[in-house]
Write a structure and sequence with these properties.
Elements: E1 4-7, E2 11-14, E3 17-21, E4 28-31, E5 41-44, E6 47-51, E7 53-56, E8 60-64, E9 69-73, E10 76-80, E11 83-87, E12 90-94, E13 97-101, E14 109-114, E15 117-121, E16 124-126, E17 131-136, E18 140-144, E19 147-149, E20 153-166, E21 169-171, E22 175-188, E23 191-193, E24 198-202, E25 210-211, E26 223-224, E27 230-231
Parallel strand pairs: 1-4, 2-5, 3-6, 4-7, 5-8, 6-9, 7-10, 8-11, 9-12, 10-13, 11-14, 12-15, 13-16, 14-17, 15-18, 16-19, 17-20, 18-20, 19-21, 20-22, 21-23, 22-24, 22-25, 24-26, 25-27
């Protein structure tokens, strides 16, 4: 297929406005060498809007600074060394595919959220040695109709301001959720299947109540809450059908 292709070894820095328009048949591809030293990735301190953009083989494929704006649709982020995508500002992410560490990397996160606000919709995050989503530093996360697949955990909360997880599919993670600090959370209508260890791991750093009612907890139904205030009642007896990315 035809592709618009950039092969980089340093940074691509966006201080103003960058609009990237690819298509399904002709995505814009930004990458670096697959072996040796990774390139540094795209750093956004202004505004970046992209459709059908593929970024790979960087230390951090795409990262936004505090105050920056990302609007990404139908983008593919993969094979990073540290983060496939790291958001510190305001990010709206739809129809994303975020997956896989760079060869030899064993500490890659798919999506890191360090402050700011992220809306994640109809996306697949999978195959990572660490978290599919790591949310911390007083971040806000809204995640609807996504698939979190084959990570250390599907979503991990550290010092998160608020979160809303609705109609997501958590599949084949070591832990479905890690909850070590979220101010307010609504977690409903999600499927947790094939978690190899626990559906929820929490500790007493979780001081406020988490409403995690009305979810399907798979066959294990195992939680290690350690005093955390997490309500897992009203569990679904069968998997919900309205979960994961919706048909276009």
């Amino acid at each position: 297929r035809e592709r618009y292709f950039w092969d980089l070894t340093g940074y691509l820095v966006v201080k103003g406005v960058l609009n990237v328009k690819g298509s399904k048949d002709a995505p814009v591809v930004v990458t670096g060498p697959s072996t040796g030293k990774a390139w540094s990735g795209i750093v956004v301190s202004g505004t970046m809007t992209a459709t059908w953009l593929e970024v790979s083989q960087a230390v951090i494929n795409v990262q936004s600074q505090a105050g920056a704006t990302l609007t990404l649709d139908h983008c593919h982020m993969h094979h990073a060394e540290q983060y496939n995508l790291l958001s510190r500002g305001a990010s709206t992410l739809t129809r994303m595919l975020i997956e896989q560490p760079r060869k030899g990397a064993n500490a890659t996160f798919n999506l890191g959220i360090k402050g700011g606000e992220v809306v994640l919709m109809d996306s697949v995050l999978r195959e990572t040695p660490n978290e599919c989503v790591l949310s911390e530093d007083n971040a806000t996360l809204t995640a609807h109709y996504n698939q979190f697949d084959t990570g250390h955990c599907g979503v991990h909360f550290n010092t998160t301001k608020s979160a809303e997880l609705l109609n997501n599919q958590f599949k084949g993670n070591l832990y479905g959720l890690m909850i070590f600090g979220v101010g307010q959370a609504e977690i409903h209508g999600n499927n947790f299947t094939a978690s190899s260890t626990l559906e929820i791991l929490a500790n007493n750093a979780q001081k406020t109540s988490v409403d995690a009612t009305g979810n399907y907890w798979g066959d294990k139904k195992k939680f290690a809450l350690a005093g955390a205030k997490i309500d897992t009642g009203g569990a679904l007896s069968a998997p919900a059908t309205d979960v994961g990315p919706r048909p276009e």
